[in-house]
Amino acid sequence: MSLPVPSALSPSKLSSFTSCALQFRLANIDRIPEPPTQATSRGTLVHAALEHLFTLPAEERVRAVADECVDIAYAAYRDDPEWTDLDMDDETEAAMVAEARHLVANEFLLEDPTAITPMGIELKLEVEIGGLRLRGIIDRLDLVDGDLVVTDYKTGRSPSDLHARARMQGVHVYALMCEKFFGRRPVRVQLLHLAEPVAVIAEPTDQSTRGLERRLHAVWSAVESACETEDFRPRQSALCGWCFFQQWCPAFGGDPERAAVDVGIRDRADAGQEPLLRV
Ligand code: SF4
User: Fold this and answer.
1) Measured between alpha carbons, how far is 68 from 123 in angstroms, rounded to an integer?
2) How much is the pTM?
3) Do 131 and 209 share a structural domain?
4) Which residue from 34, 233, 235 has its CB within 8 A of the most atoms of ligand 1, so it is best to mutate?
5) Of 29, 27, 24, 9, which Cα lies nearest the Cα of 213?
């Protein structure tokens, strides 16, 4: 017996597999759905508000409309199970919306939205590189003097430097996907940490791109091999404290084989798609 190999790699799957193979298996192969958290739902709300902001004509993207963008996104999201399942009282819900407003306002401390020319917002891309399929959604792809710039927003605080590095790697993967798809390498990638707020900026090079391609193929080979041998080992780290799968993790006395049964998945074909969690 072997486990089915996922159809594609994404930045979140890359990060998941390299930080803990068991977590990757439970989320992406067994497809055990992770319930929303305040952090993921706040992330979704902020991304939706920023999407709305950047679909406005450039001259209208001013600080005065930021709260209105959050309100529009909140009105569309407040009945979604991802939000209602949090079962928040009025005070907690109001605090969540206030935090979202604060994070969207911080965008204006990092950039001037009126000066940005987005050519894609929440841009879905899929490319193949030497037999490896990559899939992802880019928060924003801009045109700057005819060149491409990749922007990704982060609404949570990084629990560690290691996690921050993994997030930056994800933006470089998006740049590589753009290069394959559009035939042009983005001149810049930027990770906008809205909570701090701080922008982390890098410029992809021939060397960094070659290194990333090698790493992606190495990780993909490791995923295929783990599926073949059904060997997905837990790797304990600071991230365990945030891990929904801890209840089935052998490192904490659990049994991963119980996970699908406990959540009522009879067969992997019954499982839903990988959820898109935004933090
Ligand atoms: S609790 Fe830690 S070791 Fe176990 S699956 Fe989650 S991240 Fe991996």
Assistant:
1) 23
2) 0.91
3) yes
4) 235
5) 9
